[in-house]
Amino acid sequence: MSNARPYRLHPVSILFNLIKTVREGIFLIVFGFITFDRFYFILLLAVFLLLGTLLSVLSWYRFTYRLEAGELRIEYGVFIRKKRYISTNRIQSIDLTSGVIHRMFKLVKLQIETAGSGKSAEASLNAVKLSDGEKLRKALKGKKVSHPDVEIEVQKESVNPSREITPKRLLLTGVTSGSAGIIMAFAAFAFSELEQFIPSHFYDWTFHWVSELAIVFIIGLAIVVLFIFWLLGIAGTIIKYGKFTITKIDDELFIARGLLEKKQLTIPLKRIQAVGIKESIIRQPFGFVTVFVEVAGGSLDSGEDFSTVLFPIMKKAEVDPFLQEFLPNYVQGPARLTALPKRAMKFYLIRTCTPVLLLGLAVIYFFPQFSWLVIFALFVAFLLGFMCYKDGGFSVEPERIVIRIRGFSKKTMFLHHKRIQAFEKKRYPLQKRELLATVKLSILGKGGTGKHYKLKELEEAHADRLSDWYSYRE
User: Fold this and answer.
1) Apex 138 CA angle, 297 and 150, nearest 5
2) Which has the closest alpha carbon to 250: 326, 308, 320?
3) What pTM, to 2 d.p., does this model score?
4) Angstrom distance (rounded) from CA 227 to CA 301
5) 451-454, long-range: CB within 8 Å, 24+ apart, which pairs?
6) Cα(415)–Cα(399) distance, rounded to whole angstroms?
7) pLDDT tens across 414-457, in order?
8) Eight-class DSSP state of 472
9) Among 183, 204, 412, 470, which is most exposed with the fewest C-beta within 10 angstroms?
10) pLDDT tens sequence across 355-370
11) Which helix (H) or strand (E) holds 42?
């Protein structure tokens, strides 16, 4: 790759630019569909697409990149010319993505992140040839990593540790993922956006129809709907984590995953702020966990709950060997956690049961036929509150703290002292009376934002002990 010659993206980039323009103007298109009659709407839509295509072509033509004097130099902009110079010494990671369209033309999308990257990547090349992407990555990182079809291949003689998810574990990941809830939330959002197009009499008919049904039929119908969402969740998880592979090369971790959209993530070890073990309610009884890391800087990836999954699923007993192989500084070891005091239990129960009780009273008043749902919800809230209390705890070592917290999932976090950015201790009036306190540990997260972990209703003496540990006080 010549250092002086400027390069352009692949012409398929025009299509990606047009898709982005349409996606950003979707609400304008819907507004025009509602406001104008069919003839004027089609006319305006044609003008919109024509202008969008023209701007996409100009954006592609005006976008150039080159390597020169140890910098990646990018020039872009249709009406206002912009230049961005990124020193190769500042580059933290280079992520490669290959969607369906990319793979049709043997292309990749290359995203470059630096320590100062915010909610988006420092630079993004949305369509480059696979061979050019390999050359560019080699030039920027000074390391050769072969990845045909955006998959990492390690030479046979390499001793770099690597693990790949098996088909059986991949299926188990989908079955126990709990993605059905996310799909249901997305369906509810889509329904709320389309609600204005649904006739009002449809709601009245649906309400009367449901009210007249037998409770057994309603439960059966709900089970069928949940089963469908569960199958969709399994399919989505398999597509997301298919061919998941993690490889450690020198001081970086390389993660490749995805069936339809293949991604390769690069994680420098020095950017890892914490390691976590997540046990969902579904997986915990079977002894399966997910291992993830919190990475400082970089762009946000909401599909992974703002964290980076190191391995989607493994047995709890397999975590220590896995960390010993990839992150030896975070090996769990035989840590005995200090549990929360018994008098903290009522705080957890009140916190989870009160919202359900207040909402339940309203449901009983307006819809008495669904009172049984309120009783069931209160039981679930009580059980959740007790589990949050029972699973809470911490363990302190000279240079590391281990904390365990629970929401719907139990999380065990391993944080080194030097990675903790702030420590906060709070005492509310009711906590003061019970000699309890809440502590909050903060680290850097993705997008440069903070990531916080709260352990509530600790013994006040234990909270003071953690404060002294953080401040290096005897």
Assistant:
1) 75
2) 326
3) 0.75
4) 27
5) 451/273, 451/274, 451/294, 451/306, 453/403, 453/405, 453/413, 453/415, 454/405
6) 9
7) 999 999 999 999 998 899 999 999 999 999 876 556 789 999 99
8) T
9) 204
10) 999 999 988 888 888 7
11) helix 38-62
